[in-house]
């Protein structure tokens, strides 16, 4: 998730918070994606398929606003067999052309090929380690790597992290593509490996509680 390009307006205070009619504070980008913000973003994800999907969608998002991808997510799921890695891994050149002709998704050949490649890499990784989710969650940053306060300054000045750079390097070594450090940091934010809801956002404490209760995959 990038900061300024997803903001619903320019008048964002330094805390990065907006308030609703009842005075409840949320992250500045919440008005453009309310359900995603309140019920999905930052909540821990344990499922191999959904983690693979998120990596792929974050790759498609590169150079675009996340809201564009979110609006197309159901079309992506339909086009890519709900991100079933076994099915996507068997895609042929004919499937690539089918996807390039699908107006519901982002028709970028390199990103489509990356999604197919990454399905094959995900299968290999799971066969080697037993679980894609277990391997990915081992790259969760330690608590002392996280800031005491998450505000707009932190968002604007930290598009990546040491943990996301490490994850990116490890995935690239295994042949994954479109998994740069910034993309992997957005992935970590989305799947709950970090809690980057703004300090003071009504969801920040809820995500902390969800992360504390979450049983890490092995």
UniProtKB/TrEMBL annotation:
Name of the protein this chain belongs to: DNA-3-methyladenine glycosylase I
Keyword vocabulary terms for this entry: Glycosidase, Hydrolase
EC number, UniProt record: 3.2.2.20
Lineage of the organism: Bacteria, Pseudomonadati, Pseudomonadota, Betaproteobacteria, Burkholderiales
Enzyme category, top tier: hydrolase
Gene Ontology MF, one: DNA-3-methyladenine glycosylase activity
InterPro entries cross-referenced by the UniProt entry: Adenine_glyco, DNA-3mA_glycosylase, DNA_glycosylase
Record flagged with keyword Zinc: no
PANTHER family: DNA-3-METHYLADENINE GLYCOSYLASE 1 (PTHR30037), DNA-3-METHYLADENINE GLYCOSYLASE I (PTHR30037:SF4)
């Amino acid at each position: 998730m990038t900061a300024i390009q997803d903001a619903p307006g320019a008048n964002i205070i330094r805390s990065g918070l907006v308030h609703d009619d009842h005075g409840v504070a949320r992250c500045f980008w919440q008005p453009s994606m309310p359900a995603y913000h309140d019920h999905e973003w930052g909540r821990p994800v344990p499922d191999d398929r959904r983690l693979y999907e998120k990596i792929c969608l974050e790759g498609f998002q590169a150079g675009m606003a996340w809201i564009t991808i979110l609006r197309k997510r159901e079309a992506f799921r339909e086009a890519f067999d709900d991100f079933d890695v076994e099915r996507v891994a068997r895609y042929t050149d004919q499937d690539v052309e089918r996807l390039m002709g699908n107006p519901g998704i982002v028709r970028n050949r390199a990103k489509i090929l990356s999604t197919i490649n990454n399905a094959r890499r995900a299968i290999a990784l799971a066969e080697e380690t037993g679980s894609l989710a277990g391997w990915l969650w081992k790259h969760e940053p330690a608590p002392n790597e996280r800031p005491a306060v998450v505000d707009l300054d932190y968002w604007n000045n930290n598009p990546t992290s040491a943990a996301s750079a490490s994850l990116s390097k490890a995935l690239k070594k295994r042949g994954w593509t479109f998994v740069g450090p910034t993309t992997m940091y957005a992935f970590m934010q989305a799947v709950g490996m970090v809690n980057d809801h703004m300090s003071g956002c009504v969801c920040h404490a809820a995500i902390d509680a969800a992360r504390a209760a979450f049983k890490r995959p092995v």
